[in-house]
Amino acid sequence: MNKIIIHGGFFSESDQSKEVKIAKQNSLKETAKLAFDYLENHTALETVSYAVSLLENDELYNAGTGSQIQSDGVIRMSASLMDGDSQKFSGVINIENIKNPIFVAQNLMSVEDRVLGGVGAKKYATESGFKDYSTETPQRRKEYLSKVESLRKGTVGCVALDQNGKLAAATSTGGKGFEIPGRISDSATVAGNFANEFCAVSCTGVGEDIVSNATATKIVTRVSDGFKIEEAFRKTFTELAKIDGFAGAIAIDSKGNIFHQDSFPTMVFASFDGENFEVFD
Ligand code: ASP
């Protein structure tokens, strides 16, 4: 029962054109299809890394190439991976100059120290054979120089269910832009990316809100405790609203139900189950 859902963060009508919206719809649809094809011969865990790497390579999104720039002019990226089957979580926090942070997280899955940050993460990546790569684009430098607050633009994530009934989630981000160096994103925490045998979730939005609400963890725990996936989302997003939180999340449960919700209806996402596509409008 192969299932895929991906997200590309939030689309902001105010500062992006119609062309960008169409480009995101097309790219998400294409990536969902590529990921679904990949899932035919790979595990959910391998597939979520693959799908997120495709989105990291796409300049449209705030992850990998096209990541936002922090207040000191430097790009620091975070990515994580969670295997629902083994319930192992791996990730990198604030890594610099790596093309695909999600692949470093994937590498760490088999290492004892599975979450690395900053210089240590970069050193580990270099020693593991990852080449130096600048993920800066002219567009992001322009935004940085004109101090365009570009919150809510494009963190990426993927959740997959494979034919053996295994779930996995992956999330990758360039952060919220203009942050204080050292700020920790939710994307490489269990609040932003979490999975077990019952459910897998990837989030986007304001990292501080996602962490305060323990969003991904709560949804997964509620489904594990018997909530229907839509009920688990409803309760978790009601709690998010109480703290005036801004977030969106995508999920799949072990029965193959795909679900998404956002606190503000502009999360960009696409899902594919082999027959039907659902793409954000
Ligand atoms: N969640 C990311 C962060 O706060 C940003 C985003 O999803 O747009 O780092």
Main sheet specs? 8 strands, mixed
Bound molecules: aspartic acid
Strand order of the largest sheet: 4-3-2-6-5-1-11-12
| Proportion of residues in β-strands | 15-25%
Could you report the average pLDDT, rounded to the nearest whole number? 94
Cα(first) to Cα(last) distance is 26 Å
Helix content estimate: 25-40%
- SSE string, helix = H, strand = E? EHHEEHEHHEEEEHHHEEEE
Unreliable stretches covering 5 or more consecutive residues: none
Number of strands: 12
Helical segment count: 8
Describe it.
An 8-stranded mixed β-sheet has the order 4-3-2-6-5-1-11-12. It has a 4-stranded antiparallel β-sheet with strand order 7-8-9-10. Helices cover 32% and strands 25% of the residues. It is globular, with a radius of gyration of 17 Å. It is of the alpha+beta class and 281 residues long. It is built from 8 helices and 12 strands. The mean pLDDT is 94. Aspartic acid (ASP) binds next to strand 8.
